[in-house]
Specification:
Layout (H helix, E strand, L loop, with lengths): L23 E4 L5 H11 L3 E6 L14 E2 L2 E2 H5 L4 E5 L5 H13 L2 E4 L3 H7 L3 H7 L4 E6 L14 H8 L19 H24 L4 E5 H7 L2 H10 L16 E5 L4 E5 L3 H10 L3 H5 L6 H6 L1 H12 L4 H10 L4 E3 L3 H4 L3 H5 L3 E6 L2 E6 L23 H9 L3 H8 L5
Parallel strand pairs: 1-2, 1-6, 2-5, 6-7, 7-8
Antiparallel strand pairs: 3-4, 9-10, 10-11, 12-13
Length: about 400
C-alpha cells in the first residue's frame, strides 16, 4: 500500500479543460524542463505527441528508484495527457516521417542545443520551410546564442550559475539547491507561456516563430527581487537561512512543539499580530511603527516573538493568527502536504488507474470558470501510440502502417 492507493480519481476526460483544443504539439524533449512545458500545454487541451528514441525513450524513464509498475515516478510526474511515438530520427526514414509530422504540427518543443538541431535537421530555419506556421520552441541551458550556447546543462548547473544556490541555506553552511528542480520547472513554464503568446501572434500574422528559452536566464529572472536591490544599492545579499527579508518579520519561528512561518508585511498586520500575542506594548512602541523601524530593531523583536511563540503549540498559534488575519503557516513535510484538507478539497491530488496500479498526479491548480480538471490520460508507455499518431496526424492507411511496422497488411 502506497499513498497513491488512497487518492481520489479525476473527473471524466470529457470534463477536462479544452482551451487549446485543435492545437498539435510535437514534444521532442527529455528530462524535466521540456516535458513540463508539454504537460502544461496538454493540460490546457493541446494534443501532444511525445517523440522518443526507440528502446530508450525519454532519459527520465530511467531515473530511479523509485519506480512504479516499471516506470520512473519522475517521468510519470510530467508526462500525462501525451501520446508516445518512437521514431529514429538519425535515420532517413525517421527524418522523413518527422518532417511529415512537422507539416501537421502547430508547435514543436526541443531541448537540443542549436548545433545538434542543425545536425538532425530540426532547427527553426530548416523546419519553417516545411511549415511556416510552426512555433519552434527551444529549451536549453544557456540559450541558442552566446558563448555558452553549446554547453550541456541540467537543473543543478542552472541553479548554481544563476546565484540561487548561493542565497539558499544557512549563513554558516554550504550553498544548497532548491528542494525541487526549480530551473527546470521555471523554464518549462516560460516555454508554455511563450508558446501561448506565439499562438496569439500567429492568429494575427499567419506565421510561426522561433522561441528561445534559457534555463539559466529563467532561473536568474526568478531572482529579480534580489538582484535589482543589489544593482540599485550595491549591498550584496548573502544566505541567511531565510531570515534576511526586506520585510522585518518574515521568517520561521519555533512554537512549543513545531516550527511555523510568519510574515508581517505591513503596519496593520504588525498591530494585529502584537494584539494577538498579548504584546500591545510592542504595537504602541513608536520605534516599531513602520517596517524601517522594525528592521532597525529586528534582533530585539525576533527574540521577543520567539519567547512568546514557544509558550504554546503551533496549532494554537495558527488558529489564533487565522482569526486575526495574520499571515502564518506550518512547515509541512510532503506527507502532510498531500493530506492537507484544503488542497484535497480543491482536487489538487489524484491518481489514475493503469495496469492495476494507481499512478499519482498533481493537477494543474489553475481554474477556468471554476474548472481545473486537466487529466485525459495517464503518462504513456514507450511507443504505445506510434501507429495511432501516424494514422490520425498523417492519414496513413493500414497498408503503409503495416509496412512501417514490418508486417504484411491484413
Amino acid at each position: 500500500m502506497v499513498p497513491a492507493d488512497n487518492m481520489r480519481s479525476p473527473p471524466l476526460p470529457s470534463q477536462a479543460i479544452n482551451l487549446l483544443e485543435g492545437i498539435r504539439v510535437l514534444d521532442m524533449t527529455t528530462s524535466v524542463a521540456g516535458p513540463y512545458a508539454g504537460l502544461l500545454l496538454a493540460d490546457l487541451g493541446a494534443e501532444v505527441a511525445k517523440i522518443e528514441r526507440p528502446e530508450q525513450g525519454d532519459d527520465a524513464r530511467a531515473w530511479g528508484p523509485p519506480f512504479l509498475d516499471g516506470e520512473s515516478l519522475w517521468f510519470l510526474s510530467v508526462n500525462r495527457n501525451k501520446q508516445s511515438v518512437t521514431l529514429d530520427t538519425s535515420q532517413p526514414a525517421g527524418r522523413e516521417t518527422l518532417r511529415a509530422l512537422v507539416s501537421k504540427a502547430d508547435v514543436m518543443l526541443t531541448n537540443q542545443v542549436l548545433r545538434s538541431q542543425k545536425k538532425l535537421g530540426i532547427d527553426y530555419e530548416t523546419l519553417k520551410a516545411v511549415n511556416p506556421r510552426l512555433i519552434h520552441v527551444s529549451i536549453t541551458g544557456f540559450g541558442l546564442s552566446g558563448p555558452n550556447a553549446d554547453l550541456p546543462c541540467y537543473d543543478l548547473i542552472a541553479e548554481g550559475y544563476s546565484g540561487v544556490m548561493d542565497l539558499t541555506g544557512e549563513a554558516d553552511g554550504d550553498p544548497q539547491k532548491v528542494g525541487t528542480p526549480a530551473a527546470d520547472l521555471l523554464a518549462g513554464q516560460d516555454a508554455a507561456l511563450a508558446t501561448l503568446a506565439a499562438i496569439i501572434a500567429r492568429n494575427r500574422t499567419g506565421f510561426g516563430q522561433e522561441i528561445d528559452v534559457s534555463m539559466v536566464e529563467s532561473m536568474t529572472r526568478f531572482l529579480t527581487p534580489r538582484i535589482i536591490p543589489f544593482l540599485g544599492s550595491g549591498e550584496l545579499p548573502r544566505r541567511a537561512g531565510g531570515k534576511d527579508s526586506v520585510i522585518a518579520i518574515y521568517q520561521t519561528f519555533d512554537a512549543e512543539d513545531a516550527p511555523l512561518t510568519l510574515g508581517l508585511g505591513n503596519d496593520g498586520i504588525w498591530i494585529r499580530f502584537c494584539n494577538a500575542i498579548g504584546r500591545q506594548d510592542m504595537a504602541a512602541d513608536p520605534r516599531l511603527a513602520n517596517n524601517e523601524g522594525r528592521r532597525r530593531h529586528r534582533p530585539e523583536i525576533v527574540e521577543e516573538i520567539q519567547k512568546a511563540l514557544r509558550t504554546k503549540p503551533r496549532s494554537h498559534w495558527l488558529a489564533l493568527f487565522a482569526k486575526s488575519r495574520v499571515p502564518a503557516g506550518p512547515i509541512n513535510r510532503l506527507d502532510e502536504v498531500v493530506q492537507d484538507p484544503a488542497m484535497q478539497e480543491r482536487g489538487l491530488f489524484f491518481s489514475l488507474e493503469r495496469n492495476g496500479f494507481a499512478i499519482p498526479q498533481i493537477g494543474l491548480g489553475i481554474r477556468f470558470d471554476g474548472n481545473s480538471h486537466a487529466c485525459r490520460s495517464a503518462p504513456p508507455r514507450l511507443g504505445e501510440d506510434t501507429m495511432k499518431v501516424f494514422k490520425t496526424w498523417l492519414d496513413w492507411d493500414d497498408t503503409r502502417l503495416a509496412a512501417l511496422a514490418g508486417k504484411p497488411a491484413q
